[in-house]
Design goal:
The complex is a heterotrimer of chains A (87), B (380) and C (361). Chain A has one domain: SH3 type barrels (Roll). Helix content of chain A is 23%, strand content 39%. Chain A has a five-stranded antiparallel sheet, with no helix packed on it. In chain A, strand 2 and strand 3 form a beta hairpin. Chain A is elongated and about 60 Å long. Chain B has ten helices and 16 strands. The longest helix of chain B is centred in the middle third of the chain and has 18 residues. A seven-stranded mixed sheet of chain B has the order 11-13-9-14-12-15-16. In chain B, helix 4 packs parallel to helix 5. Chain B has two domains: 136 residues, 60s Ribosomal Protein L30, Chain: A (2-Layer Sandwich); 166 residues, Alpha-Beta Complex (Phosphoribosyl-aminoimidazole Synthetase, Chain A, domain 2). Chain C is an alpha/beta fold and 361 residues long. Helices cover 39% and strands 20% of the residues of chain C. Chain C is built from 16 helices and twelve strands. The chains are: A alpha+beta (87), B alpha+beta (380), C alpha/beta (361). At the B-C interface, strand 1, helix 1, helix 9 and strand 16 of B face helix 1, helix 2, helix 4, helix 5 and strand 12 of C. Strand 3 of chain A pairs antiparallel with strand 10 of chain B, so a sheet runs across the interface.
């Protein structure tokens, strides 16, 4: 029920009493309603669902989680732990 | 295949009580209902029948083929290849193809309906190995169309024709009343000649063959969708509409065997590959990581929930060739202006027959199905 | 695409799969709530890469699939009206009503338009003051804030020619209903990541405690899904029954407060029927009385609706997670996306459609 895609806010303005923005999805841009992320600023990333930002993306959390996952892999290979063979 | 005999009346929800009227009979208050509900799901034509996917295929199988049945037609390739009667002309093979072109808007980034019409038919001929020679074009103009627009489009047709090295030798024009024809419909018929020795067709794919594509997928469909404005997104993507006969000649010049060529137009690469898999009775296995897709096209597809394999192209071809010839063909494509981003995207296997599979980036496998009908954005 | 491609990294996914394989000691049955998650799982082939001990059951998180047939029939009747421009998310176009669908209405001359955003429907209303614009407002909690904003804006801007057909559902009551069934086999849930981005996950804590099951907030990309599954498996193996967040980049415990506030300004909870499942108390949303004039079902009287469900469609059992699409005798034969007997086959994230499109064999 939730096609939500991360996009980068590249512009913000107000229209009809609502905070709006232009969001870039890697080369495609669209007008998006930012009413639900009032603290959003240009260069922030947000999750966009049906033309609305439903939350800002926590880039720090994303970075540290991915880093942790990559590191785990290094630890495993250092310890000589085998990955399970894929089916 | 009506659903009606599977239905039984069920309890209504909060309405309760008895229900006497069906929807067709409801005329309470307000302006009258103007559109009677068809009884069966598919007794009439819907837009999806023109999308190049399963509905189109069904329509062809159910209505056109049975009525018009003949071996040349039933082969089902992009163009028909006919032997000239030897006693009349000395032999040789003619290729014939026809297309109708409906597109909104008439002019879009990268092209217009005129360029689309010429390239579409030139490419259909090229896909059976023919050298396109002549096109005819018939126009249905909507009353009120600006002559300036028509001039622009016809000029564009000439530019495309010159690029392809062909001429438009016959034509016709009709005018439809205001409200019909979306501004302009163009129908083109093309004739070409298939040089001796070329046996290229949808039934030619063999297990072990390499599957190649001449460039990025989905550009045309996304460019046109953006230009239509209904989904209100912007992008710098332009349509890839281009004549491919020059590229095809370059492929044959390598001396390689070219088993199958197809241009993945409406319905995208998924439709074209499924058709080939079915015609040849083979499996086509694609590799997700190898599919060439521009980031902006990928972005638009993600945002709208589209599969790039279902999005139309108008200047790309799929080539199926013996694996040993793949490198040679790729080099030849990349040396040509319309093939600079050519890639190896998959291979042909014997099983499962008539299926297209995708090996996903995470090591899984899934089927690449024929798209059903229209491409619709989704929220889920 | 940034923050998307990284979560499709095959190496990382395989690493987490290996972790699951090592951790699992016996069979476990998990349910992913959201149809979008089902779609992503089947599309990436992830379900076939999991160890055999893990069974994934597909939940009823498909707002299209659960919209009651009567409401669809009413929507179709409204769409047929000459004075109406009917706007909808693309997902609803092909869903079969008792006798027709929005495609067929359009083919017969109805003005049916697909919109990407509910605000686009508002724009259509402003551009067409002589027509009534009706918007089919479906969705779970993720889509409630956008749909709510459309109504609120219509109110603020004095757009009297705009109205909505509301068919909203909430996840926690559905989880409660599923866990309360005597035949329930689900031992852990992957909660819907974007629903939780809006609502947070505090609502799930009483459920986890009461029913003694782990609930893991999970995203949609293969890496997110496999991490959610891994977290659930770890909990099950250890006998823990907590609510855990495996989608931290988008979800916080309290969720998006401004979105929640706006939902409450426009909607209030109500009982609703889930097509194929039945009535679930307080699982729906309806317009608050002060905004009731925007309810299209009241504004347009389309009379009595006689519904007719297919008698061989088992969408209900599939939505409940009791059966898989391949268990249905009509799957792929009488029932295909081109000729669907029920909504789970035609919705882009219905389980039947996902199986048909991606994994028929």
């Amino acid at each position: 029920m939730c096609l939500g895609i991360p996009g980068k806010i590249v512009e913000t303005w107000e229209k009809d009493g609502l905070k709006m923005g232009r969001v870039d999805f890697g080369g495609v841009t669209r007008e998006v309603c930012l009413a639900y992320v009032p603290e959003a600023e240009v260069d922030d990333y947000a999750i966009i669902h049906v033309g609305f930002a439903i939350n800002l993306l926590d880039e720090e959390e994303a970075r540290s989680t991915l880093e942790m996952l990559h590191e785990l892999g290094e630890v495993e290979s250092e310890l000589g732990l085998e990955s399970a063979s894929s089916p | 295949m009506s659903r009606s005999h599977h239905r039984k009346p069920a309890e209504t929800g909060s309405g309760g009580g008895e229900n006497h009227a069906s929807i067709d009979e409801t005329h309470t208050g307000g302006p009258e209902l103007s559109c009677p509900m068809p009884l069966s799901h598919r007794e009439g034509i819907v837009l999806g029948h023109g999308s190049g996917g399963k509905l189109t295929a069904e329509l062809i199988e159910r209505i056109f083929y049975p009525a018009l049945e003949n071996p040349l037609l039933l082969r089902g390739d992009d163009a028909a290849v006919a032997e000239l009667p030897a006693e009349l002309t000395g032999g040789g093979r003619l290729a014939l193809s026809t297309d109708a072109h409906i597109v909104r808007p008439l002019v879009f980034p990268g092209g217009d309906i005129g360029r689309l019409a010429v390239c579409g038919t030139v490419n259909d001929l090229a896909m059976v190995g023919a050298r396109p020679l002549w096109l005819t074009a018939s126009f249905v103009l909507e009353e009120g169309l600006e002559t300036e627009v028509l001039q622009q489009i016809v000029a564009s047709m000439q530019t495309a024709a010159a690029e392809a090295g062909i001429t438009v030798v016959a034509g016709d024009t009709k005018v439809a009343e205001k409200g019909l024809a979306d501004g302009l419909y163009i129908s083109t018929t093309g004739i070409g000649v298939v040089p001796a020795g070329r046996e290229t067709g949808g039934a030619g794919a063999r297990p072990g063959d390499a599957v190649l594509v001449s460039g990025t997928l989905g550009d045309h469909g996304i460019a046109v969708l953006a230009a239509r404005g209904e989904l209100a997104f912007e992008t710098a993507i332009v349509s890839d509409v281009a004549p491919l006969n020059g590229l095809v000649e370059a492929l044959y010049e390598t001396g390689a065997e070219v088993h199958t060529l197809r241009d993945p137009t409406r319905g995208g690469a998924a439709a074209a590959l499924n058709e080939i898999a079915r015609q040849s009775g083979v499996a086509i296995v694609l590799e997700e990581g190898s599919l060439p897709i521009r980031p902006a096209v990928a972005g638009a597809c993600e945002m709208l929930g589209f599969d790039p394999l279902h999005v139309a192209n108008e200047g790309k071809l799929i080539a199926i060739v013996p694996a040993s010839d793949a490198e040679r063909i790729l080099d030849a494509m990349r040396a040509h202006p319309h093939g600079t981003e050519a890639r190896l995207i998959g291979r042909v296997e014997a099983e499962p027959a008539a299926r297209v599979l995708l090996q996903t980036g995470i090591g899984g496998t899934r089927i690449v199905d024929m798209p059903t009908g229209e491409l619709l954005p989704r929220i889920c | 695409m940034k923050y998307l491609d990284e979560y499709r990294d095959g190496d990382l996914v395989r690493r987490v799969l290996a972790e699951i394989e090592v951790a699992v000691t016996r069979p476990w049955t998990l349910m992913e709530i959201c149809g979008g998650q089902t779609h992503s799982i089947v599309r990436s082939g992830l379900d076939r890469l999991l160890p055999d001990e893990i069974t994934l059951v597909h939940g009823p998180g498909c707002p299209v699939c659960i919209t009651p047939l009567e409401k669809i029939d009413r929507a179709l009747a409204i769409a047929c009206r000459k004075d109406v421009i009917f706007t909808s998310y693309g997902d609803m176009l092909r869903v079969p009503g008792s006798r027709s669908d929005l495609f067929s209405v359009r083919a017969a001359g109805g003005d049916v338009r697909v919109v990407y955003s509910p605000l686009d429907a508002l724009t259509i209303a402003r551009d067409n003051p002589d027509k009534e614009v009706v918007f089919f407002a479906i969705g779970f909690e993720t889509t409630a804030p956008p749909n709510a904003m459309a109504v609120l804006q219509a109110d603020r801007l004095g757009l009297e020619n705009f109205s909505v057909i509301v068919s909203h559902a909430a996840v926690p009551p559905a989880i409660r209903a599923i866990l309360s069934w005597p035949e329930n086999l689900v031992q852990g849930f992957l909660a819907a990541g974007h629903v939780c981005a809006v609502m947070g996950y505090w609502e799930y804590e009483p459920l986890a405690a009461e029913f003694g099951i782990p609930i893991v907030v999970t995203g949609f990309e293969p890496l997110d899904l496999v991490r959610g599954i891994a977290a659930a498996v770890h909990q099950l193996e250890a006998g823990r029954t907590e609510v855990e967040n495996a989608y931290g980049r988008a979800v916080s415990r309290e969720g998006n407060r401004s979105a929640q506030d706006l939902i409450a300004r426009v909607f209030e909870p109500c009982d609703r029927t889930w097509r194929g499942i039945g009535a679930i108390a307080q699982s729906g949303l309806t317009l608050r009385s002060e905004l009731a004039r925007f309810d299209a079902e009241t504004r347009f009287d389309v009379g009595e609706i006689e519904t007719a469900e297919s008698d061989i469609c088992i969408a209900g059992e599939i939505l409940q997670g009791r059966k898989k699409p391949v268990d249905c005798p009509a799957f792929g034969t009488e029932c295909t996306p081109e000729n669907p007997l029920g909504a789970t086959m035609v919705s882009s994230e219905g389980a039947c459609a996902a199986y048909y499109k991606y994994g028929r064999e």
